[in-house]
Amino acid sequence: MTAGHTMSGRPTAVSDCILRVENLSISFGRGRSKNQAVQKLTYRLAAGETLAIVGESGSGKSVSSMALLGLLPAGQALVESGEAWFEGRDLLAMSEAEITHLRGDRIAMIFQEPMTSLNPVLTIGRQLTEGLVVHKGMSQREAEARAIEMIELVRLSDAASRLRQYPHELSGGMRQRIMIAMAMASDPAILIADEPTTALDVTVQAQILDLMRDLKRDFDTSIILITHDMGVVAEMADRVVVMHRGRKVEDGPVERIFVAPAEDYTKSLLAAVPRLGRAAGPPAVTSDIEPADDGSVLVRARDLSKRFRSGGWFSRDEGVLAMDEIGFDLAPGETLALVGESGSGKSTTGRAILRLIEVDEGEILIGNRDVRKLGQASLRGARRTMQMIFQDPFASLNPRMSAGRLVMEPMVIHGVASGSELEDRTVELLRRVGLEADHMRRFPHEFSGGQRQRICIARALGPGPKLIVADEPTSALDVSVQAQVLDLLLELQQSLGLAFLFISHDMAVVEEVSHRVAVMHQGRIVEMGPRQAVLNNPRHSYTRTLLAAVPMPDPTRRRGALPTLDVAAMPRGPLAEVAPNHWVAA
Amino acid sequence: MIRYIIQRVLAALVTIWITTIAVTLLIHAVPGDPVRIMYAKFQSTPEQIEAVRIALGLDQPIYIQYGLYVSRLFQGDLGRSIVGDQPVLDILLTRFPPTLLLATTSLVIAVVIGLSLGFLAAYKRGTVIDVGAMVLAVLGVSIPHFWLGLLLLFFFALQLGWLPVAGSDLRSLILPALTLGLANAAVLARLTRSAMIDIFDQDFVRTARAKGLPKTMVLYRHALRAGLVPIVSMMGLQFAYMMGGAIVVENVFAWNGVGRLAIEAVFARDYPLIQGFILFFATVIVLVSLVIDLLYAVLDPRIRYS
Amino acid sequence: MASIAPTTIAENVHGELAGFWLRLVKSPTGLIGLLIVLTLIATALFAVWIAPFDPLQMGAGPRLQPPSAQYWFGTDDFGRDLFSRVVYGARLTLQIGVIAVGISLTSGLLLGLVAGYAGGWTERVLMRLVDVLFSFTEIVIALACLAILGIGLTNAMIAIGIASIPFYARVTHSVVLVEKGKPYFEAGIAAGAGHVRMIFLHLLPNVVPTLIVVGTLGISTAVLAAAGLSFLGLGAQPPEPEWGFMLSSSRDLISRAPWMMIFPGSAIAITVLGFNLLGDGIREVLDPRQVMR
Fold first, then answer.
1. Is C32 at the interface with chain B, CB within 8 A?
2. Which of A407, A543, B268, C200 falls 20 to 30 Å from B60 in CA-CA distance?
């Protein structure tokens, strides 16, 4: 049951086909509200291969896979037609009892959100062993022995004591490893992985993908990998199925899809993906706006520190040091990117600059005014020059206000205009960001994600700010929409001379939009400098790891296993200048 | 977990302390002269009224009154009732246990019926069973429990003669407990259904299904066990409602608990008794809620191991 | 700013109002609830024309008569027509419900809003007080109020109103906390909005829908509470035709005249049911993006 023989993994013969899906159609709802989620989907999965099903939201990729195991909500989803042949039987024609036998035993599935996919009130041990007891008839002791083996296989330490731990004691990456252990414990023929790394930091993602590759090789499992990330596809897949709005657009071997895509949608999907290293060559005109070179500084931050304490009165909890002596300069018209993973403090820093959060110590000068010293009223006035764009475009718009009122609001607050002049300006702003005048009366829930973010941008532009803090502005958007929004931001910067503090975890996006980059890790800036310098010539070990972990959307350039980063040995001292304007933590 | 326990115990103590303050202030909220109002029925001379006022300490500044009240409290002296002139503490100690018995029995009935009904309705969401259960529940929630009591009294005691109309023994407990229990079962059914539907929608239930676990295992070991956490957290409130409902139901069935006492006290403007009653009542509820909170900590590993 | 506030709210309300009523009527719970409540209101308004007899007139008919063609609900122990009394009782019931909820909702809303928005010590102290009152339970607070004010229907209304304030304060407070955590709240602050704008334009419109639901359900709670207090003799006094009070008079006569118990009790139950269904229906309509229960 453990390490079997290795396989080269590129089978092509139809007789090696382990799963055959034919004409699968699934719909939600009835009558006028009917939504055809999947239409006549057909594909094959060969033994020992990794098939990536890639698409944006609404493509039907998740729904089609959940249907294979009968996991769709019974009342809402209807499998209208189709067959899924596995080991001589049609999965879609099975009874609930029959498919329950297969689930977790012959076909296993792991999901996107490791934080919520484990039962919080049961131990890890219980959750690992119950599948084995049910499917393999093991005794509890045998199952626990196997569970310990699996925990070690997924490269977690202290296997025996893990059994008695609860999910909340583990991090997201660790939980996902447990999910993988659970799935692989019964040596399934097929592993369906639904966006398994989307919710994880990029370095953790790299580790998990490495793990999945190794396990696949050792267990000789076939994998259906569902993802929206073309980089992950290039890293992991042997063959690719591209889906769009419920239909299969194209399928084929991974190299051909990337090098010579046949369909227009595939082409546009690939073109929209931000690619790290694309900006290494001569930059396109729009992405290279030179900031004012006169040495003037718009934002100057020095020694910012912030500690979050979680406990109540009796807590001996030291809390988390979210910002540790953060300092940087930002020139007018320049984009400084703050890059880091979760817990790096980049979001906290963005909010601190705008004084949405109060720092414990440090100095924030915006246009030569010390923002920290401003009283409430002056602070409100100062906000005119500095605005923010948030990550979740829907939640950052008051659902009870129309788009027009939302865009108007900052202008009204600061008395920029009133009456008909105000309306005219609002219309002008909406048009500027690519919307229409009659969108003014509509409410947020009537817009798409990309449109909502445009409304947020229009809102931020209203009072005529000099600085915009953009906190992961495109992370929640589909790839194709993301590209449009980024183009809009770049274009606005060029025409309005805006300075951006651009917060992101995505290196490729950062490369497209920034002039300078600051890499953050657990509250400290570990490297900072011009974009080319930091991204092409990283000097800090963490930056190197971060860059190496990014999956490249190029199947010919698969990276090897990621070297482990010793966090404790990583230099975290004060920044030293190693090259003109290029600073690295010593 | 220790931190959690300490926080809860402190919160409970603070609540009781504030209750004592509120109770002391109660008398002063009365428009007019409370002493005269209390003794309106008796033919008292102004000297007697003045004597009572001094005995109750009402001529002193408020903080001294409070100090007096608290010091007497620690000596077990809650004052004397106007009606019958007995120590309030004795009265309460005699009359509280029957109410506690009624409230607890009713809670057990409500939990057994309500939880099962709610769980079933959530599991069979959208089917006839669910709709039927919820129709029953919404009817149950709408029926005044004293009317339900009267109806049950009418059918079971008077028409059929199966159960006594009034009394203090266990047979007499059945009707009042059923009345209160059924009324609250409806409330619990709705709450349980909500909570369980939330749980059924959770990712970890989907994971359990995806592992191919049999339906009963998913239902009980995963869903129900996780659902107990929010459901138990509701129990403190439900107990408080039970105690409140007991006050009314006791009057339907002439059950000799503290509910009837309270009503009589309000009629008679028997302030010492009312003060003692409020203090006792609030303390009982705070203590029971504390126990339930601690139980909740045991059930939720996120609190137990943090 | 004066030009924005009323326009925004009015614009929202007007545009959504039509859609709101349509969706409410489409759901079965909402429809039935609405019909019952409208019937109640109509009964209360037109009581004078609906009731065949004067509800206070003793000896309108022979005493303790079972329901008949002349006395639809029968007569009570004073010979009064029960049907007329029940009809007039609708007026009292409606009054009680609306006034009690009015008192508690406005006070609770204010309390919860201030506590939730202000945060810090203000919030902690206020909510601690609310918690303390909560542990008294509503009926005890009501009893305490009646002990202070004296008994009677008006005092009972006030007592119930005061007793429910902690509940509305808590509900408001938790909604405010949820909304405060949403990015649009932070966005408002980032735009430079002051306290008044944040509370009235951002928080309040998002708090109101929940409060409408809770308030509607609260009317049924208030009606039950008032009936309960009147049943105990602490609320309505003779000869007021309040339903709870009528139930208490029926207690000793259950065997002889069960109709005295059945009709007023049914009236209470139907009224409470109506407001419950209406509240549930409104909740379904106002939270369509939330779980479809």
1. no
2. B268
pLDDT for residue A368: 81
Task: Please work out, in degrees rounded to the nearest 5, the angle formed at the alpha carbon of residue B151 by the alpha carbons of B150 and B156.
Answer: 100
Best C96, C131, C140, C266 member to test B by mutation, with max B CBs in 10 Å, is C140
Among A68, A94, A117, pick the best mutation site for testing chain B contact (most B Cβ within 10 A): A117
Chain C contacts of B22, Cβ < 8 Å? 132
DSSP codes of every residue in B57-92: TTTS-HHHHHHHHHHHHHTT---B-TTT--BHHHHH
The residue among C189, A499, C247, A314 whose CA lies nearest residue B145 is C247
Our count of domains for chain A comes to 1
Q: Phi and psi of B83, rounded to 5°?
A: -80, 110
Spatial distance between the Cα atoms of A245 and A247, rounded to a whole number of angstroms: 6
* Chains with 3 or more CB pairs under 8 A to chain C: A, B
Please give the interface size between A and B, counted as residue pairs whose CB atoms are below 8 Å apart.
Answer: 90
B17 touches chain C (CB under 8 A): no
Q: Which of A387, A397, A445 sits opposite C190 (nearest CB)?
A: A387
Distance in angstroms (rounded) separating the CA atoms of residues A398 and A459? 12
* Domain membership flag for residue A286: no
Q: Which of A115-124, A363-372, A451-460, C167-176 shows the lowest per-residue confidence on average (mean pLDDT)?
A: A363-372
The answer to the question of residue A93 being in a domain is: no
CA nearest B1 in A: which residue? A315
Interface test with A, best of C3, C8, C210 (most A CBs within 10 A): C8
> CB-CB: which of A383, A412, A445 is closest to C4?
A412
* Average pLDDT of the residues of chain A: 87
Mean pLDDT lowest among A247-251, A358-362, B202-206, C10-14:
C10-14
Average of per-residue pLDDT across A291-300: 75
Using the Cβ of B300 and the Cβ atoms of chain A, whether some distance falls under 8 Å is answered with yes
Residues 223-282 of B with CB under 8 A from C: 240-241, 243-245, 247-248, 251-252, 262-263, 265-267, 269, 271, 274, 278, 281-282
Query: Tokens 């190029």 correspond to what residue?
Result: A554
Domain assignment of residue A257, yes or no: no
- pLDDT of A280 over the 80 cut: no
Contact B144 C228 (CB under 8 A): yes
Does position A14 have pLDDT exceeding 60, yes or no?
no
Residue C232 near residue A418 (C-beta atoms within 8 A): no
Secondary structure (3-state) at A51? strand
ipTM above 0.85, yes or no: yes
Neighbours, chain B (3 or more CB pairs < 8 A) = A, C
Closest CB to A380: pick one of C183, C192, C205. Answer: C192
Could you report the average pLDDT of every consecutive run of 10 residues in chain C (293 residues)? 38 62 82 92 89 83 84 86 90 92 95 92 91 88 89 92 94 93 92 90 91 93 93 88 90 85 93 93 72 30
Rounded-to-integer distance, Cα A344 and Cα A520, Å: 6
Domain that holds residue A171: 122-185
Cβ neighbors of C209 (< 8 A, separation 6 or more) are C286, C287
